[in-house]
């Protein structure tokens, strides 16, 4: 079964006849969710055609059929986009996460430097940290890779044999201090895996994406179970409750800002005005300001 078939089956399994126009008559069911024939009926396609889609045998699925399936499966916007990417792999393969510009525009670097009281970072599609300002590093990565004053790189991963910029997804699963940082680690892990699922569909031929997924699948962590759930989400907004080792509990509201380079994710973290989190973040900012280097760290 290909990725399209697996995704369709996972979304079908979460629906129940009682939640649809089919109704439920109390019969015993051998499968979770809707049967293939029931989903086909709701989508207005033949049961044999839908079965071929789940078996990975469907070719050139029309937009009308995809739209009908999305409605029948009650997909949200992120899931609809994911369905389209899986059904159009040749179109998706035209992009490559590795082609994202590693040289950030000067204007973006200046903006990050001016946002000294707001943690902000720039991520690649695979969640490589391309840049972060001092406060973002103090929040999420102060322990991660000591900075060499001879250059201006973000702290590169070397502890686990990874030379290159820190990767937030890898850190959340494989870096113990990062795992301990998130009070709701399971919720955060679910969120980053759902985002990585979308990235993998958008860049099916990208070696960097495949390598990251393969590494995490073989890591012996919770990643494999979350990956098999086939959940997808943009994760543009998220509430992070952190247990910071220096300033205690922080509630940070995550927002992703879009730039003229759509594959770059500019992620800013804000706090509720007048809250204990604002006080804690100001304290962390003061501790960060005591350090000699206030530059934006760029990978």
Low-confidence stretches: 146-160
Helix-residue proportion = 40-55%
> Which CATH class of the largest domain?
Alpha Beta
- CATH architecture tag of the largest domain: 2-Layer Sandwich
> What is the rounded Rg?
22 Å
Folded structure, characterized:
This protein has 299 residues and is α+β, with helices and mostly antiparallel strands. The protein folds into two domains: 3-87, lambda repressor-like DNA-binding domains (434 Repressor (Amino-terminal Domain)); 98-298, Beta-Lactamase. Helix content is 44%, strand content 11%. The protein contains 14 helices and six strands. The protein is elongated.
Briefly characterize the structure:
This protein has 299 residues and is of the alpha+beta class. Helices cover 44% and strands 11% of the residues. The protein starts with a helix and ends with a strand.
Keywords:
single chain, about 300 residues, alpha+beta, 434 Repressor (Amino-terminal Domain), Beta-Lactamase, 2 domains, 6-stranded antiparallel beta sheet
Write the layout of secondary structure elements.
Elements: H1 3-13, H2 36-43, H3 47-54, H4 63-73, H5 77-87, H6 89-92, H7 106-114, E1 120-123, E2 129-132, H8 134-140, H9 168-174, H10 176-181, H11 185-202, H12 207-217, H13 223-228, E3 237-244, E4 248-257, E5 265-270, H14 276-289, E6 297-298
Antiparallel strand pairs: 1-2, 1-5, 2-6, 3-4, 4-5
Helix pairs in contact: 2-3, 2-4, 4-5, 5-11
């Amino acid at each position: 079964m290909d990725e399209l078939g697996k995704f369709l089956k996972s979304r079908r399994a979460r629906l129940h006849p009682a939640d649809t126009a089919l109704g439920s008559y109390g019969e015993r069911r051998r499968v979770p969710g809707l049967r293939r024939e029931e989903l086909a009926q709701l989508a207005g396609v033949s049961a044999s055609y839908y079965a071929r889609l789940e078996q990975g045998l469907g070719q050139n699925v029309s937009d009308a059929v995809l739209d009908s399936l999305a409605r029948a499966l009650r997909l949200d916007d992120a899931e609809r986009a994911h369905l389209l990417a899986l059904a159009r792999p040749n179109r998706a393969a035209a992009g490559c996460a590795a082609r994202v510009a590693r040289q950030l525009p000067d204007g973006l670097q200046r903006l990050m430097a001016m946002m000294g009281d707001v943690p902000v970072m720039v991520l690649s599609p695979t969640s490589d940290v391309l840049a972060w300002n001092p406060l973002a590093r103090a929040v999420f990565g102060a322990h991660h890779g000591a900075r060499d004053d001879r250059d201006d790189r973000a702290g590169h991963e070397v502890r686990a044999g990874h030379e290159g910029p820190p990767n937030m997804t890898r850190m959340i699963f494989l870096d113990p201090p990062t795992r301990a940082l998130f009070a709701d680690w399971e919720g955060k892990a679910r969120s980053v895996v759902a985002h990585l699922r979308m990235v993998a569909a958008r860049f099916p031929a990208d070696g960097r994406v495949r390598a990251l997924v393969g590494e995490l699948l073989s890591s012996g962590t919770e990643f494999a179970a979350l990956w098999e759930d086939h959940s997808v989400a943009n994760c543009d907004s998220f509430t992070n409750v952190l247990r910071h080792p220096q300033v205690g509990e922080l509630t940070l509201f995550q927002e992703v800002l879009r730039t003229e380079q759509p594959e770059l994710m500019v992620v800013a973290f804000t706090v509720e005005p007048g809250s204990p989190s604002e006080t804690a973040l100001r304290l962390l900012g003061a501790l960060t300001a005591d350090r000699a280097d206030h530059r934006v760290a760029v990978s």
